[in-house]
Amino acid sequence: MKTLLRMKPVFQEKIWGGDRLRTVFGYDTPSDKTGECWAISGHPNGDCTLENPEFAGETVGSLWKKRPDLFGNLPGDTFPLLIKIIDAKDDLSIQVHPDDAYAKVNENGSLGKTECWYVLDCDPGTSIVIGHNAKTREEMARMVEDKRWMELIRQVPIQKGDFFQIDPGCLHAIKGGTLILETQQSSDVTYRFYDYDRLQDGKPRTLHIAQSLAVTQVPHQAEPPKQETFSVGDATVTRLVTCPYYTVCRMVLSGKAHMDWNQPFVNVSILSGEGTLDGQQVKKGDHLIIPAGYGPMDLEGELELIYSHV
User: At 263, is the secondary structure helix, strand, or coil?
Assistant: First the structure.
């Protein structure tokens, strides 16, 4: 039987987190303030352990170093992608991420952070922050200084099934009532622009105004990614985005499909339903990596999944 690398997720408690990772996905979360499920990760801040008996005690990070053949012998010190499910019960801070060049110099050689969001669910009337209204960096600095946040930010209404690409330099914030699957570079660098004057343990959380002003794209520009939909057997596949760091696709299967995986590796997250991948059982909330050279696979069942690769 061909190997599928199965993940044990890592959970992160957050000031804005909720309980939907437990109530929706059935995960054993640490508290009702669990904001993030790091579902497929080799990052040192949340390195997923493998559940395969043949890789007992190994993590994605350790396997990347010991068994590069499983990941197509790609260059680099770290597993390049990070898949999260984010449960925002309350608003996240208004924030921005650096690109590779800025992060390398200013964040101890870290990768930058390009990311994208697939909206799994959201409360009625929910919006997110994407972009800003400042024409120049000087105007942005004045608006920040004067705390004219509502004038500065752009809010976009969202609904289940929406998809957004968030490039480095894009001012953004996930808002309360949103459940999102995020695919991103393996980076944990976030610059907090504004945090609603919230207190954590009696103190305001650290802001990164200088870094945020330095890396935010001014004026804001964004083109929605070009998507395409195609059929594979009884499955409908939508390519949500292709960028320099990843390709992300959504598949909805009702019956049978045959895929030929020829990427260095493929991340798979089961969003709903249950079924089999080459006869191996999968269900909602499972996350796995299809290793390099896997080749043909038969999929069967009623499944919705997101898959991604470099």
Answer: coil
What residue type is 287 in one-letter code?
Answer: H
Q: Please name the residue that has the structure tokens 């922050």.
A: 129
Contacts of 3 (CB under 8 A, 6+ apart): 52, 54, 291
Q: What would the pLDDT profile of 258-292 be if each residue is shown by its tens digit?
A: 999 999 999 999 999 999 999 999 999 999 999 99
Half-sphere exposure of 220 (CA within 13 A, CB side): 19
Q: How many CB atoms lie within 10 A of CB 84?
A: 23
Q: Which residues are catalytic?
A: 192
Asked if residue 65 has pLDDT above 90, the reply is yes
Average pLDDT rounded to a whole number, residues 178-183: 98
- The 10s digit of each residue's pLDDT in 141-158 is 999 999 999 999 999 999
- Distance, in Å, from the CA atom of 105 to the CA atom of 97, rounded to the nearest integer, reads 14
- pLDDT given at position 297: 98
Q: Cis (ω within 30 of 0) for the bond into 219?
A: yes
Global pTM reads: 0.96
123: how many CB neighbours lie within 10 A of its CB?
12
Alpha helix (H) ranges present in the chain?
A: 20-23, 60-66, 100-106, 137-145, 149-152, 209-215
Residue 166: φ, ψ to 5°? -115, 100
- Provide φ and ψ at 69, rounded to 5°: -60, -30
Computed from CA positions of residues 10, 181, 187, 309, in that sequence, does the dihedral angle turn out positive or negative? positive
pLDDT at 1: 77
Distance, in Å, from the CA atom of 189 to the CA atom of 113, rounded to the nearest integer, reads: 7
